[in-house]
Amino acid sequence: MSSCYIDIGNSRIKLWLCEGLKVIASHAVWHQQSLTILWTDLPTAFYQPIDFIGVSSVLGDLVNQQLIEICVSLWQVVPSFATTDFTSLGVKCAYDEPNLLGIDRWLNVLAVARKQPVCVVSCGTALTIDVVNNNQHLGGYILPGMKLQLSSLIQGTQRVRPHAIKQTSLALGKSTSEAVYHGILFMSIAAIEKAYTRATLMSDQRVGLVLTGGDAENLSPHLQIDHDIMPELLLLGLQRYFGHSS
Q1: For residues 176 and 160, what is the distance between their CA atoms, to the nearest angstrom?
Q2: Could you read off the pLDDT of 89-102 as tens digits, one per residue?
C-alpha cells in the first residue's frame, strides 16, 4: 500500500511517502500559514497514486480544509486526521479532555511509548516536554522555544537588541548579546533537565530521554543526560497512530 503522512506544524509542513512500512521519499517546507506552497514545491516523487493519507495538524479548520482540497486534487484521496484520544495504542492520555492536548505532543508520546519510561522533548516553535510510564501519559510542560524566547525578549524590551553570536554556551554572558543567547540556552537546558529529574522520581526504572525538532541539535551538546535525537519523531508517531508501522 502506498501512503503519505503529513505533519503540519506551526512553521513547517513535513511529508513522508511510504510503500508499506518503508519511507521512500520525504520533504519539508516552510508553509507561512498557507499550503499553496505544495503546488509549487512538491518533489516529483510524490506525484504518484496514493492509497492513504494520514495527517497531523496543529493549525485551524481553514488550513485543514485547504489541505483536504489539495489532497483530493493531487491524489483523489480524502485525508484522515489524527486526533488526541483517551487511549491510543494502549497509552492513556493524562488530560481529562484529551482534545485539548495538542496532537503533535500526543503523536510524539505514541512514537516513544515503546521506550517507556521516557521523557520526550520537542524543540521547535514551542519547547514541549512530556513523560510516559506504564502506558500512562503523565503530563508535561509547554514553554516558548528558543526563537520565540528571543523574539519575545526583543518585543518586550526597549534596549535589548542582541546581535547574532558565533557560538552559544552556558557560560555567564560578558555582553548583552551573549547574556541573551546564553540565557535562552540556559533556560531551555534547565527546563529539560529539571523535567527529567521529576520524571525519574516517578519511576523505579531508568528513564529515557528523546529529543526531536529543529533545535534538538543545538541543545543536545549542552545536556548532561544521555539522550537520543529522533528528527522525524512526529511522523513516526503518525504512522503508528494509523497502524501502518511495525
Answers
A1: 7
A2: 999 999 999 999 99
Q: Are residues 112 and 27 in the same domain?
A: no
Predicted TM-score (pTM) of the model is: 0.92
* 104 is known as an active-site residue: yes
Output the CA angle 126-9-154, nearest 5 degrees: 40
Average pLDDT, the chain: 94
pLDDT in tens, 27-61: 999 887 778 878 778 899 999 999 999 999 999 89
* 164-173 pLDDT tens trace: 898 999 999 9
Does residue 134 share a domain with residue 162?
Answer: yes
- Using the 3D structure, point to which of 20, 46, 81 is the last residue of a domain: 81
Single out the residue of 110, 65, 63 nearest to residue 83, CA to CA: 110
Helices (H) and strands (E) in the chain, counts: 7, 12
- Tell me, yes or no, whether 246 lies in a domain: no
pLDDT, residue 245, reads 55
> Which residue of the set 41, 51, 104, 204 is catalytic?
104
Query: What b/e sequence results for 160-173 when a residue is b if at least 16 CB atoms lie within 10 Å of its CB, and e otherwise?
Result: eebeeeeebeeeeb
Identify the domain boundary among 19, 50, 81: 81
The CATH number assigned to the domain holding 41 equals 3.30.420.40
Check: CB of residue 183 under 8 Å from CB of residue 177.
Answer: no
